[in-house]
Design brief:
The protein is α/β, with parallel strands linked by helices. The protein is built from ten helices and 18 strands. The strands form four sheets. A seven-stranded mixed beta sheet has the order 6-5-4-3-2-1-18, with helices on one face. Strands 7-8-9-14-15-16-17 form a seven-stranded mixed beta sheet, with helices on one face. A two-stranded antiparallel ribbon has the order 10-13. β16, α10 and β17 form a beta-alpha-beta unit. α2 packs across α3 and α9 runs parallel beside α10.
């Protein structure tokens, strides 16, 4: 299978700490790189992770709190200094585009690449990016300002050809596309070979959901049902559930309930409060509800399977 990975660049929350950088990730999918959120320090983390700046083709911003977007103008400036010429698409809630255009007039006015801003409707679940092999759709979240997550999905692929059967029946290579599309094979003497004997099932499409920032939403699970890997904010332990409600964040247990109800393959916890000095407590609380939980950390690479 083609690589499908998530690179964690930052998983802290609003207040800076010495333990974590602000929110940022890179999704590596079918040979393309997509950034999700771009907090302060993202460029340093890109350097540390050895991810090539110039290969990032699109940026998806969840909302306009600074810990999710203050690194964007610096990164755009660096792209220009590196001589980028390829267009960059940036998706996010309005007025991200207006704000960034004003900053770019001052800091990035003489660069040789185009930045195209796409306003997303955070109230709707809809596809905002699509190419031949994948889609990215918004996932409505509930925070103190308009906010959405992003769901990355592979498109279904064609089944795998059984080379041994093709060789046994002397089926020409020119027929492979027809067979992948579902055709049987009929030999010159009229023998029909069922398509089910000629192919093996395609790999199931993989998916990744990024859900931050948000209060606990019981019906969020239905929007991401069956997701392979879920990153869900887990700002607080249960001790601070009242703060989670006040500031419209989630606890680790609430993130685990979403993962359980969504029948997710794996849960990744992140967006840790600065008051949380022992993140193992978050993990322990989540595992009580959803055992296949793990902690995000800078430098972590997650294979989506």
């Amino acid at each position: 299978m083609e690589p499908f990975r998530v690179h964690i660049l930052g998983c802290g929350s609003a207040l800076p700490t010495l333990r974590h950088f602000a929110s940022s990730q890179v999704v590596e999918m079918r040979g393309k790189l997509f950034m999700v959120d771009c907090g302060e320090g993202t460029q340093m983390q890109l350097r540390r992770s050895r991810i090539r700046f110039t290969k990032i083709s699109a940026v998806f911003i969840s909302h306009l709190h600074g810990d999710h977007c203050f690194g964007l103008i610096g990164m755009l400036s660096t792209f220009g200094l590196l001589g980028r010429t390829a267009k960059l698409d940036v998706y996010g809630p309005a007025p991200l585009g207006d704000v960034m255009r004003q900053q770019m007039k001052i800091f990035c006015h003489d660069f040789d690449y185009e930045v195209v801003f796409h306003d997303v409707d955070t109230r709707q679940q809809q596809v905002v990016y699509e190419d031949r092999s994948l889609t990215v759709e918004t996932v409505p979240l509930e925070h103190r300002m308009p906010c959405c997550g992003y769901l990355f999905r592979e498109k279904p692929t064609l089944p795998h050809i059984r080379r041994d059967v093709l060789d046994a029946y002397h089926i020409p290579v020119s027929q492979i596309n027809n067979i992948k599309a579902g055709a049987d094979w009929v030999s010159e003497d009229g023998e029909r070979v069922s398509n089910s004997l000629l192919v093996e099932p395609a790999d199931p499409p993989r998916s990744y959901a990024y859900c931050s920032d948000t209060r606990y939403i019981p019906n969020l699970a239905s929007r991401i049902k069956g997701v392979s890997v879920l990153y869900h904010e887990s700002t607080y332990t249960e001790e601070y559930v009242a703060l989670a409600e006040k500031y419209m964040h989630s606890t680790a247990q609430q993130a685990a309930m979403v993962a359980r109800d969504a029948e997710a393959g794996k849960l990744v916890l992140g967006h840790y409060s600065s008051r949380c000095e022992d993140e193992k407590i978050l993990l322990d609380e989540a595992k009580q509800i959803f055992p296949d939980s793990m902690l995000a950390n800078e430098g972590l690479t997650i294979d989506v399977e």
